[in-house]
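[Archive record]
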Amino acid sequence: MWHRARAGILVVGILLAGCGDGGETGATIPPGSGAETAVGAVEQLISAINEPDFAAASRVAVPGQAALASLAEGASFAEVAEALRGGDQEIAANFWAGFAQGAGSFLAGGVTASGDGSIDQDGIEFHTVAIELAEGDTRTLLVRDTDGFRVDLFASFAPGLADKMIAPTERLLTTQTEEARVVLAELQGIVPSLLVAASLPEVTTAASQQIIALVELITRVG
């Protein structure tokens, strides 16, 4: 249940930091091609976090989403636009490094992943993958097929990211620069992910309202 962990709030502070142990940095991280199945993407993520190899974890994240998530921690529009243009694998590696050190500690050790169904949103199929923890509890990650199956950060962690992205998105709407336009255009692409997150039964009403408020801001320029 992602609303319990508030995963995004616990990890976004590391998004702009340099990679620590367990991974390549910068341009040395190739984007990769995703996994062959939705469950495979989550299994690769679990394996990478347990090694740890956060560069490998970055390869099973939907490209560009970690750069957008860095808005929640105060990244400048120029920094985000640069990452979107040149690849955000380094930022994605840092996302998973922070996640593993905080809310994602539940992925350590003996956990199993299994297919749990799918959700269609705006013509995009989101695959739900259930993670069974050692103590019998379950968590859910959402995965998309985009050049291979990859974990969707916003569909999975929007409850912890949306509230911190509202203010920077409001500033984007009034900033007339090329970098701001690049970021706004990319934000349009995460709307289906946000709507899926807001609709999940385990998400609290308050978190769902924050996600919808972010969607309304993003689509104001649509």
Observations:
- The beta strands are 112-121, 124-132, 138-145, 149-151.
